[in-house]
Design a protein that fits this description.
The chain has about 300 residues and is an alpha/beta fold. About 45% of the residues lie in helices and about 20% in strands. Strand 1 and strand 2 form a beta hairpin. It is rod-shaped. The N and C termini lie far apart (about 75 Å).
Length: about 300
């Protein structure tokens, strides 16, 4: 069996740098012009072509005074090499075009559902050429291993290798439905409200809000069988009158304005964190990332 037909055989290709130098020199019929295109010296182009000639055992150019011409071997090889490079350019251009057309965003659930998604139409109007794909996740993804362009996450804005822009400070307060308030209130002081059924009563936010309200010890929760981890679900349960929920009013402005939720006390508490827009520092000038960053920061200013 001939060696080049044996299973697993891979022909040894010449160095890509040498092939690239030959393609440019053949196209320009000049080592000097090829060097200018490739950012190399004329001597470097000549050397790379010589490497290829030594590999083939045949000259690819005739060196004439002040110019070069393709040899017979060079004329036979040049079209195939040019076609191969055109195919590579087309493949990378298509990949770049596809990559530029889709923006992959990983976002925490409530920020995405209650704030981002209702406003995405404005971004699409400004950038109809960019399709946005949103993945809901509470974990901090690894941008070096996962196929995401941007992330929206909670924290203090310090993640190695990531550029971070503060979006919304995490500030929370108890919210409930008007019907729930009518059944269990009114409450003259926070300590009175704490006797009513609370949703996710063991959430750390309850302790922080009670501390800010001057309640030294958070009393045991009233009866409630509802325990949820996501603010959007807690908000839905609160609107349904199932209890008082510790929520961020910034995510429920529409429900508050429509009277589906009420805020019994004006006091807001915080855990000194915020929601942040993050992306790898090395990709800050990518067009689609820059477009989304500029849009969301401008939207928040409004």
């Amino acid at each position: 069996m001939p060696k080049d037909t044996e299973p697993g055989f891979r022909p040894v290709l010449p160095p890509l740098t040498a092939v690239r130098a030959f393609e440019a020199a053949a196209r320009h019929q000049s080592f000097t012009k090829a060097a200018a295109e490739l950012g190399m010296t004329q001597a470097a182009v000549s050397y790379q072509v010589k490497v290829l000639e030594d590999r083939l055992g045949k000259p690819l150019f005739r060196r004439l005074p002040k110019k070069v011409e393709l040899s017979e071997t060079g004329r036979r090889l040049a079209p195939a090499v040019a076609s191969a490079f055109q195919g590579l350019h087309a493949a990378f251009a298509e990949l770049r075009e596809t990559d530029d057309a889709v923006l992959a965003v990983t976002a925490v659930h409530t920020f995405a559902t209650n704030w981002l998604v209702p406003r995405l139409g404005a971004f699409q109007q400004q950038h109809p050429e960019i399709a946005v794909r949103i993945d809901l996740s509470s974990r901090n993804v690894d941008f070096t291993r996962e196929d995401f362009d941007l992330g929206i996450r909670g924290g203090r804005g310090k993640w190695p290798g990531l550029q971070a822009h503060a979006l919304i400070p995490i500030a929370f307060t108890p919210l409930c439905s008007p019907d729930f308030l009518a059944r269990h209130g009114p409450w003259a002081a926070p300590i009175d409200m704490l006797k009513a059924p609370r949703l996710d009563a063991h959430d750390e936010w309850w302790r922080l809000w009670c501390q800010a309200a001057g309640v030294p010890h958070t009393p045991p929760a009233g009866p409630s069988n509802v325990s949820l981890d996501v603010q959007s679900l807690l908000g839905t349960a609160a609107i349904a009158g199932q209890g008082v929920a510790m929520l961020m009013p910034a995510f429920f402005a529409g429900d508050l304005a429509a009277g589906r939720l009420v805020q019994p006390f004006p006091l807001m508490a915080t855990d000194d964190t915020a929601y942040w827009l993050v992306y790898p520092e090395g990709r800050k000038n990518v067009r689609k990332i820059r477009a989304f960053r500029d849009w969301i920061l401008a939207e928040l200013k409004q």
